[in-house]
Structures are given as structure tokens and as C-alpha cells.
Design brief:
By secondary structure, the chain is mainly alpha-helical. The chain has one domain (about 15-95). It has two helices and no strands. The chain has helices at about 15-40, 45-100. The longest helix is centred in the last third of the chain and has 55 residues, at about 45-100. The protein is elongated and about 80 Å long.
């Protein structure tokens, strides 16, 4: 039987998720964007086509990475705030039960 794969429970932003999501989203969004923009450019040689794809792809990649990171950061903050509110509510409920006794 194979050894189990290691797991992690990151505190804060899960950078592994950010990298994987950025990779997939960049391919899904970037390929059509590069193809669409290439119709408006004169690309007579393979070298110019490669250079164009790299330049446009880099912009798509950085914008995607920043957007995914901002989303992950916002979700992490909301999760922390929700957990804090729940723990405060539990503490108040416990204190209320202790006061009744």
C-alpha cells in the first residue's frame, strides 16, 4: 500500500491553493485572450508569435495571480472573523449558563 500523501492545515492564506488556482485560471483565461489579441497584431514569424504570447501571457498571469491572492486573503479574513464571532457567542452562552447555576 502506498504511503499517504502529506497534508497541511495552513494558517492564513493557503499559497499552494493560490498557485494551483492561478495556474489553471491563467491557462483557461489566458489562451483565449492571447488568441483574440493575436488577431489584431501583425505576427509574420514564429519568433514574433512566441514573443507576443509571452508578453500577453505574463500580463494575464500577474493579473490573475493578484486577483486569486486577493480573493484568498479576503476569504481568510472572513473565515477568521466568523470563527471569532462564533467563539465569542459560545463564551457568552457558557457564561450565561454559569450565571444561572
Amino acid at each position: 500500500m502506498p504511503e499517504p500523501v502529506e497534508t497541511s492545515d495552513p494558517e492564513g492564506v493557503d499559497y499552494g491553493w493560490v498557485m494551483q488556482t492561478t495556474f489553471v485560471t491563467t491557462i483557461v483565461v489566458g489562451a483565449p485572450v492571447v488568441a483574440l489579441l493575436s488577431t489584431q497584431a501583425s505576427l509574420p514569424t514564429w519568433g514574433s508569435r512566441v514573443e507576443f504570447a509571452i508578453r500577453v501571457g505574463a500580463v494575464v498571469w500577474i493579473l490573475t495571480a493578484l486577483a486569486v491572492f486577493a480573493y484568498a486573503k479576503r476569504m481568510d479574513v472572513e473565515t477568521i472573523e466568523t470563527e471569532e464571532a462564533e467563539s465569542e457567542a459560545e463564551a457568552k452562552a457558557k457564561k450565561g449558563k454559569d450565571d444561572e447555576e
